[in-house]
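Q&A FORM
Asked by: J.P.
Topic: structure of Two component, sigma54 specific, transcriptional regulator, Fis family

PROVIDED:
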Amino acid sequence: MKHATSMQAPRILDSRARAQGGRMAGGQPHILLVDDDISLLKLLGMRLESRGYRVTTAESGRQALKILDIDRPELVLTDLRMDEMDGLALFREVQRQAPGLPVILLTAHGSIPDAVSATRQGVFGFLTKPVDRDELFAAIDEALDQAPGATAEGDDAWRAAIITRSPEMERILEQARMVAASDVSVLITGPSGSGKELLASGIHKASSRADKPFVAINCGALPEPLLESELFGHAKGAFTGAVKEHQGLFQAADGGSLFLDEIGDMPLTLQIKLLRALQERQIRPLGSTTSVPIDVRIISATHRDLDRAMQEGDFREDLYYRLNVVNLKLPPLKERAEDVPLLAKYLVTQAAERHKPFVKGFSPEALNLLAGSAWPGNVRQLVNVVEQCVALTSSPMIPEALVAQALAAEDNGLPTFNDARAAFERSYLIKVLKITEGNVTQAARIAGRNRTDFYKLLARHDLEPSPFKPSA
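REPLIED BY: S.T.
REPLY: Here is the structure written out as tokens.
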């Protein structure tokens, strides 16, 4: 039997498994072909190109990985036995860089144990040499039909608002597309301004809940009583000022997705109530004696280090594992510098349409300056800089000097509330430690905190009392 369906059996693909040509109507699929036998590489490459595939060849696993960083294929077709890095090692590295990208192994040394080992690790298929032409094409068609992004044209609308050419971002988007198909909770981490809400919205749009509400709330922007009321709702008379019943965001998002931004700033008492709601799939509004069933997918985000917050007792471990079924980590903008010119051109077009239609873009020197900047405020800061440049320019092409001025203004601008609060806390802690010469008991008393809380504050700001002691 060439085509096995058992989970434990090798998946050796066969031309009789499916009809040929299923992908050809959708464009020219890109295949990365890897083999250290150069003559066979050329021969097989010509065979694939003759059928209309776009083929990129690599003579080793290392070369294939370099190509993968630059030009992501839809399928990897690789020899199993190669020097330095064999096909299975290449597969494991491909899955690390591009989870879900299908890999088919070819070998002249095929055996059932090899096939079982390969398929158990997640390899899509296993073909023995010499490869039958029809069997090869059928295997490729089957793999392409199941590859990430192997959907109808125009099905990328879910990610239309995310502008990128970064391989790292493309990898994250591939993961987001796959996880959107399930209903598991997703935790998006990354620095402030990196686009966490945009990605959360994209996941919702790519999911089966897309026609239902996407509701977002910043858990760090509201005081605890108001945040509890906003999330769970309240009954009439639940507290002073509750003159009528209020439906919470869990109910507003019913059937859809609820995005909990800055979940790391949620008070511990509310974390307990949130955990109970997720476990029981029902909520009880404030002042009500009746529970309400909910059907909501939770997507959360934070810029905080939740592992550290758990160690310090600021975040519940059980809630963390409930929310963090899948973690998507967005990189800072400085780590995707290739996206800066692309984003800047897109943003300047949008801003010009709203304010000054005569503005056409940035000069080459201005784009170079933008691409070379550190962007501590990430994409949000880039948006502000572009808006400032469009507002102040009097020429169709924004000059380098105006970009430099806008960047300087951003550096001297007001920090966010969270950044300002963190800076104040650190400055205050240093001051009381100086006053008390590193005596934590006295410092905690001045701060109005117990010793345990005070030590947590010191740890949060990477401060130690010892340097403030006289002996130091």
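FOLLOW-UP: Residues 417-435 form the longest helix (19 residues).
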